[in-house]
Amino acid sequence: MSRIRIALIEDHDLTRVGIRTALLQKEEIEVVGEAANAAEGLKMLKTLQPDIAIVDIGLPDKDGIELTRELKSTSGAELRTKVLILTLRDNKEAVLAAFAAGADSYCMKDIKFDNLLEAVRVTYNGNAWIDPAIARIVLQQAQQNPAKQDTVSLNTKSHINNSESGETQEHIDPYILTERELEVLQLIVEGCSNAVIAERLYITVGTVKTHVRNILNKLCADDRTQAAVRALRSGLVG
Questions:
Q1: What are the CA-CA distances from residue 192 to residues 45, 156, 210, 212 (Å)?
Q2: Which pLDDT belongs to residue 162?
Q3: 183 with 74, same domain?
Q4: CATH no. for residue 169?
Q5: Residue 115: which domain range?
Q6: Dihedral sign, CA of 17, 18, 20, 25?
Q7: pLDDT tens-digit readout, 34-72
Q8: Would you tell me which of 139, 154, 171, 193 could form a disulfide with 118, CB atoms 3.0–4.6 Å apart?
């Protein structure tokens, strides 16, 4: 099995070492490089082309959002590095700026190790991983500025997109999902992994995956993030 190649860009030495040590506990992950500032980090990413760059927002020379913007604008088709923003900042401006710059996922630094691993795996598989509070920030922005929804990118597949029918997103028949699917959807919105959902609902992970697949199909969503946002916007879950 090919390992997930990760590069760390974090100026705080202890934090960087801690993240690296945690990640290296898993055989599926390989930390291929580290940098303490944006200039070195961007050069490293272009050279090593890792699968995922874990980027701190508060870098000394320029913030991680600007680094993300530069990486995404210059990467080209040959460089497909995904960006996972790791930060203490959960304010609306930082969150929206990160997504607008092309960040694929957004995690808080107080995230639990198991959730960080989940975020890495989800991001590696081409989907976004976002904290529940951050999902709500994006939702609130979409509700307040409907004409600008298409500027808020959640990942390469999923956008809160103005070109989609408002009725599709905002008026979803609550009876389209079974009671169990609604329970699973609520836990997805809360940021739970399949394993956690299985534990909470006393069902197998395989059953959870089946429910998730049905939910995505019924909500016409490409991934869990898009399903969560549509569910919040339509009032299917709270």
A1: 30, 21, 16, 12
A2: 31
A3: no
A4: 1.10.10.10
A5: 4-130
A6: positive
A7: 999 999 999 999 999 999 999 998 898 988 989 998 898
A8: 193
The verdict on 185 and 218 lying in the same domain is yes
Q: What is the DSSP letter of 51?
A: S
Q: Are residues 89 and 116 in the same domain?
A: yes
Structure tokens that stand for 102 in this block: 């092309």
The two three-digit tokens of residue 176, written as one number: 């389209």
End-to-end CA distance of the chain: 39
Under a CB-based contact definition with an 8 Å cutoff, are residues 191 and 131 in contact? yes
Q: What pLDDT digit, counting tens, does each position of 71-103 carry?
A: 988 755 456 899 999 887 666 677 778 877 888
How far is Cα 8 from Cα 67, in angstroms, rounded to an integer?
A: 13
Spatial separation of the C-alpha atoms in residues 205 and 70, rounded to whole Å: 39
113-135 residue pLDDT tens: 888 888 899 899 888 787 766 76
Boundary of a domain, candidates 67, 96, 130: 130
pTM, 2 dp: 0.62
Q: Which stretches does DSSP call E strand in the chain?
A: 4-9, 29-35, 52-56, 82-87, 105-108
What is the CB neighbour count within 10 angstroms for residue 1?
Answer: 5
